[in-house]
Amino acid sequence: xxxxxxxxxxxxxxxxxxxxxxxxxSQSILYTSNNKNYLAWYQQxxxxxxxxxxxxxSTRESGVPDRFSGSGSGTDFTLTISSLQAExxxxxxxxxxxxxxxxxxxxxxxxx
Amino acid sequence: EVxxxxxxxxxxxxxxxxxxxxxxxxxxxxxxxxNWVRQAPGRGLEWISYISSGSTTIxxxxxxxxxxxxxxxxxxxxxxxxxxxxxxxxTAVYYCARDRCSGSSCYYDSxxxxxxxxVSS
Lengths: 112, 121
Prior knowledge:
By secondary structure, chain A is mainly beta.
């Protein structure tokens, strides 16, 4: 199975500052025939199910604030929160669907 | 509005069986592929099973293959997970999740709130 490794495991960011979460895949998840990266990002708040943020590495889900953006290709991906808000405190997971679906271990985002 | 509600989770002894249900509303299971994903206490997410909209394609994670069976009842618009030979490591919150793609498990645009399964003697 494809292993996704997120970094850091946790980070504390001041309100209004940028938060950056990385996700590294053990193999490329870029499907060359359609030039799509098979990666999604989710946000999970305490006691709630995950919520889809982005898919195909950089396509934002409808209704997700534009301060959330996904980027990267091949094996290295990033979720950026451009200006952290209090409601963004959560655990963030990346997920690949190139092969049998797998998730990263999660990154906890807190307010500094 | 899309709504998924899981039920059936409880405390069960090792080796026991359990059947989870997921009632869907706001869409029909005949038009969407579905998945079960679990989350062990304080742990990450683990995909465990997928069923296509027409029930013609089914996949399982190796960790549950041969023990768990996914199915659905289109008339009831419900998804099921039959869990047999349960182990302590199956303890988790089980989520049903709607698949945005068709034909294989990809990303999940709607999730239920989950049902808790505890396997312990």
